[in-house]
Amino acid sequence: MLQLAIIGTNWISEKFAQAALQSEKYVIRGVYSRSLAKAQQFGAPFGAALFFDSIQALGQHEEIDAVYIASPNSLHCAQAIELMSAGKHIICEKPMASNLAEVERMFEVAKANNVVLMEAFKTAYLPNFIEAKKTLLSLGKLHKAHLTYCQYSSRYQKYLDGENPNTFNPAFSNGSIMDIGFYSVAAAVELFGAPSQVQASAHLLESGVDAHGSVLLRYPGFDVTLSHSKVSNSYSTSEVQGEEGSLILPDFSECNGFELQVRNGERQSVSVEQVDNSMMYEALAFAAAVEKGEMDTDATQRSLTIAKIITEVRRQTSVVFPADSE
Fold first, then answer.
1. Where is the Gfo/Idh/MocA-like oxidoreductase N-terminal domain (predicted)?
2. Which segments of 231-315 are extended strands (E)?
3. What is the pTM of this model?
């Protein structure tokens, strides 16, 4: 059993803690927060007994094997490097860091300290998404794909009211492409690999981050269009088109099922069994890598490719973070 500590006391940390326990691979031993009271309040229901308001103290504690990081994006790199240098394995919420340079540095530190570093991109590990990826082989030659993820942020009204929530604050390396848009980029990389060309556009808020945007990924013989937004909702499906048929994904991020529409008109719905807390599968994958004692090279390359694309998207759309100059 892995002795796990959690950084962050938000809803996603709670969901991952539940998933970790459900996987039966972890014991929740510790929680870090800037407030010890919040750490104790969060960790008590999960049986945590160790509480920290110092990353250094967390890293030095011998009873912690691994750490799940769900702090603001801008903090991921420094926290992960501090903890990996102390010998802790890290599963880090997406996006792994503010830019490609930080992600590269994080993997260098992981290798130097012989620990596992994994990005918490759950979609790639979902049973239905794995089945959907296999189905690509039946589509024939691919020509078009459209992946859309647009979700009105619960924090947007606060921004409109003149507040400065992390969600729309460049100081925290945030915005649409770093949050909602990540899923579309990451799913495209998992399905198709690294593109040969990236073209991006976005609409920026006065704060300097993108509210919504589009990305065109070019591959030999076909294009992938990505739509992302934190200021509007989308109810359309995502789709991959081939000469022999199309793969229809109603909600690829959770991927509770998909449909195959073949060229002759036949339509097949596919859904395999999948647990309700979809974060359990990434928790299992991380535990397996730690038990094996080495990082999954495909997952590592995926994270590097995603970071490269998103960094290029921000360059093209003029979204700049303080972390970019550090």
1. 3-120
2. 238-242, 245-249, 258-262, 267-270
3. 0.97
